[in-house]
Specification:
heterodimer, A: 249 residues, alpha/beta, Rossmann fold, 8 helices, 44% helix, globular, B: 463 residues, alpha+beta, Vanillyl-alcohol Oxidase, Chain A, domain 3, eight-stranded antiparallel beta sheet, five-stranded antiparallel beta sheet, 25% helix, binds flavin-adenine dinucleotide, binds NADP nicotinamide-adenine-dinucleotide phosphate
């Protein structure tokens, strides 16, 4: 259960090795979570960052590109820890735009992970949250999906789809006791992104985690990390296309 | 129908199927049909946290459990259905020249909810909690049985008017303070208190600080009722009110002609909308607390006040919890044993640094045998804090540790955020209570968000 100050007991992390995802889990453990399920391809080892008295960490097999297995993934997490207080959806691949343009099949394959993989597992998770009458699904979207850029539009368009999907799912869950929290980070240096040029207004995984914790505490439906991105993108979203094209190269 | 439910503090809502049974047979039927996420009774939702929620399960709205209030003048006992609000019950008793033995700070709680929390009133130091005055209760357990259980022990008639089978005091005491987790109370018989009038005779004092407040409340003044409205951000200065039931001779000549009339509550106004975020802050509460303090007389003796106004000063305003704003509030209520005034001072000093409306400070007396019943001898302090206050989790965790070290505890009817281990340590009777629960409800049908969050019903420890 989530308590009145936003602490929870159990967390399922989809993308069990994600740097941002693990930062969120670490933060939730610091705030009281004691049951953690890390779901990753081939399972995952216990990361050193997770440590607290009485903490139980479980590992689970999860592959985003196999949608027919996703309902089972969620069911097995429930078998392990009971109610899922928070589900953090943090998997994804950034890929390389130029390579995608040269290899459309690879682009489609990664887009399936970045979009339809979320659709199947998030719908399965949402069904469970609805059944239990409480719980929050945290979806890692991105500013890349708020307005797509020429520079990474294959990735960005999947994020745009995911963002819209997550908002719609949040509306569908309204009144069910379950919620969706859409997280829109800017540039976060992690194993996914360290090799690309940093963008303005970066955030650390810990800052993203703090934004998630704030969202859990206040019941917000969207958080941005850092928060300044929200007013910034209110403006950027309205720029004329030619200007946006030049600005966002 | 699926409904989002929360407590009076309006935090952490969850969804449940809500049904409204009208009698014990319907209650039994609902319990028999409960799904894998169990069932739970709910009264008027005046507990602050998640005690009256069962996410994904079936919640029995017990306000439909009503019926005639029967007063047995010879025994001075009243029998009523569990859904009756205590305020209504008090109004029904008054013409007979009796009052309820214990009333909490609001009359908008059901008899069942009051028993489930073993509520205390301003007379706890003199009269203990409600459970001490319950003669018997009707309890529907998940197996469908309607059990009549009593407190056991001496001084209680072996066979009550309804043929009370006094054979399971353990189940009785697991239910008193048991937060709805042993089954559904459908009715109860209580001892009542005879009075001459519908009025209280109130003495009011203003104190300069916490020490002066403690000093005044510690005096053996002989008052049946006493309470301090405490301004924590203002350093613990308080308006202390102490009272007794007024005698006929205390009333005006006009009122003496019908001394049992005029004590009921007037019509209530409603707070029309939820306050904007951030209204509950240091400045607004500061202004409110100051105004309250300065409006009170420095010292007044023998004021005659209608009982309802004295017992339930906030009941003139309905849905006032909307004033908390969208984030809601947490009520922190603890009790510390006598001699632990330093702990109380430390807790008060920490709470003085955050915006809190008037708190309530009270002396407590004898406890009941209920393993989960909150009251115990000492001092109890209750304050409302905005739930979205930054750092609130850490602040309250720190206070919990101090309270626990002092041998004190938290009130489950108010809790919305304590840790399972803290509650386990504060309630040493928990393993016994679990065993009794497991006996009455072996399949674990009765469950609440509170119970899930705190692991209350976890399997009894191996002996
Ligand atoms: C303004 C205010 C002042 C208060 N002052 C005091 C005070 O002075 N002293 C004090 O002790 N408390 C006080 N309280 C707390 C209140 O008395 C308790 O929380 C009480 O339990 C609320 O009763 P309810 O009918 O609203 O029950 P709910 O809040 O709906 O339920 C509370 C618990 O009772 C259980 N329950 C409800 N009905 C039944 C039933 N028929 N059978 C079995 N279990 C049942 C529920 O499962 C739940 O666990 C105050 C609350 C408010 C809002
Ligand atoms: N870093 C940023 O700048 C940034 C900005 C905005 C949004 N985000 C989003 O935030 C989320 C987390 O990113 P991160 O920075 O933490 O990156 P990360 O550390 O690389 O984590 C991404 C995880 O996704 C997993 N994954 C990839 N394909 C998968 C598949 N088919 N099945 C299961 N898991 C798969 C990876 O698992 P393996 O270990 O098995 O490869 C990896 O652990 C992602 O959704 C990302 O798009 C990141």
């Amino acid at each position: 259960m989530r308590d009145a100050v936003g602490s929870v007991r159990s967390v399922l992390l989809l993308g069990g090795r994600s740097e941002i995802g693990l930062a969120v889990v670490e933060r939730l453990v610091r705030e009281g979570a004691r049951e953690v399920v890390l779901a990753a391809r081939g399972g995952t080892e216990l990361p050193g960052v997770l440590d607290a008295p009485g903490l139980q960490v479980h590992s689970l097999e999860f592959d985003a590109s196999l949608p027919e297995t996703h309902a089972d993934t969620v069911a097995r997490a429930v078998e392990l820890v009971g109610d899922l207080d928070v589900v953090v959806d943090a998997f994804g691949v950034l890929g390389d735009q130029a390579a995608y343009e040269a290899d459309p099949v690879a682009a489609a394959r990664d887009s399936a992970v970045n979009y339809t993989g979320h659709v199947s597992v998030d719908l399965a998770a949402a069904a469970r949250l609805r059944e239990q009458g409480h719980g929050t699904l945290v979806v890692l979207s991105s500013i890349a999906g708020v307005r797509t850029r020429r520079f990474n539009f294959v990735y960005g368009s999947a994020k745009a789809g995911l963002d819209g999907f997550a908002q719609g799912l949040g509306d569908a869950l309204h009144g069910s006791g379950a919620r969706v929290l859409v997280v829109r980070p800017g540039y976060v240096p992690t194993q996914m992104s360290r090799h690309v040029d940093p963008a303005p207004f970066p955030a650390t995984p810990a800052q993203v985690a703090a934004a998630v914790a704030r969202g859990l505490r206040t019941g917000a439906h969207t958080v941005w990390a850092p928060p300044v991105l929200r007013p910034l993108f209110t403006v950027l979203r309205t720029l004329p296309r030619p200007l946006w094209r030049r600005l966002s190269r | 129908m699926t409904v989002l439910l929360s407590g009076w503090g309006r935090t952490a809502p969850s969804a449940a199927r809500v049904v409204r049974p009208r009698d014990a047979a319907q209650v039994a039927q609902v319990l028999a049909g409960a799904g894998p996420r169990g069932a739970l009774p709910r009264g008027l939702g005046r507990s602050y946290g998640d005690a009256a929620q069962d996410a994904g399960g079936t919640v029995l709205d017990c306000t439909g459990l009503t019926g005639p209030v029967r007063f047995d003048a010879a025994r001075g006992e009243v029998t009523a259905a569990a859904g009756v609000p205590l305020g209504r019950l008090a109004d029904a008793l008054l013409p007979h020249g009796h009052v309820l033995p214990v009333v909490p700070g609001t009359g908008y709680v059901t008899l069942g909810g009051a028993i489930a929390a073993d509520v205390h009133g301003k007379n706890h130091h003199a009269d203990s909690s409600l459970g001490a005055h319950v003669r018997s209760l009707a309890l529907v357990t998940p197996d469908g049985a309607v059990r009549l259980v009593g407190p056991g022990g001496a001084g209680r008639p072996e066979d009550g008017p309804d043929g009370v089978t006094d054979d399971d005091p353990e189940l009785f005491w697991a239910t008193v303070g048991g937060m709805g987790l042993t089954g559904v109370v459908t009715g109860a018989t209580l001892a009542t208190l005879p009075v001459e009038t519908a009025f209280a005779r109130v003495d009011t004092d203003r104190t300069a600080d916490l020490d002066a407040t403690l000093d005044l409340l510690s005096r053996e003044s002989g008052h049946r009722y006493s309470v301090a409205w405490i301004d924590l951000p203002g350093g613990g200065r308080s308006v202390v009110s102490r009272a007794d039931h007024a005698h006929v001779g205390d009333l005006s000549l006009a009122a003496r002609r019908a001394p049992l009339r005029g004590g009921a509550a007037g019509p209530a106004a409603t707070v029309p909308f939820t306050a904007p975020a951030g209204l509950f802050n240091r400045w607004t509460v500061g202004a409110f607390n100051r105004a309250y303090y300065h409006r009170a007389p420095r010292r007044r003796r023998g004021q005659i006040q209608p009982l309802a106004a004295f017992f339930h000063p906030l009941d003139g305003l309905r849905a006032w919890n909307r004033a908390y704003g969208p984030a809601g509030a947490v009520q922190y209520q603890c009790v510390v044993p006598p001699g632990e005034e330093d702990t109380l001072r430390a807790v008060a000093a920490e709470l003085a640094r955050v915006p809190t409306f008037l708190g309530v400070l009270k002396r407590m007396g004898e406890s009941t045998p209920g393993p989960l019943s909150f009251p115990r001898p000492g001092w109890t302090l209750a304050v409302d804090v905005p739930a979205d206050l930054p750092g609130l989790r850490e602040l309250l965790d720190r206070l919990d540790r101090r309270v626990l070290e002092a041998g004190g505890r938290l009130y489950l009817a108010k809790d919305a955020r304590a840790r399972p281990g803290t509650i386990r340590a504060m309630y040493p009777g928990l393993p016994d209570w679990r065993r009794t629960c497991a006996r009455a409800d072996p399949d674990g049908v009765m469950v609440s968000d509170l119970a899930r969050r705190l692991g209350l019903r976890a399997r009894p420890e191996k002996e």
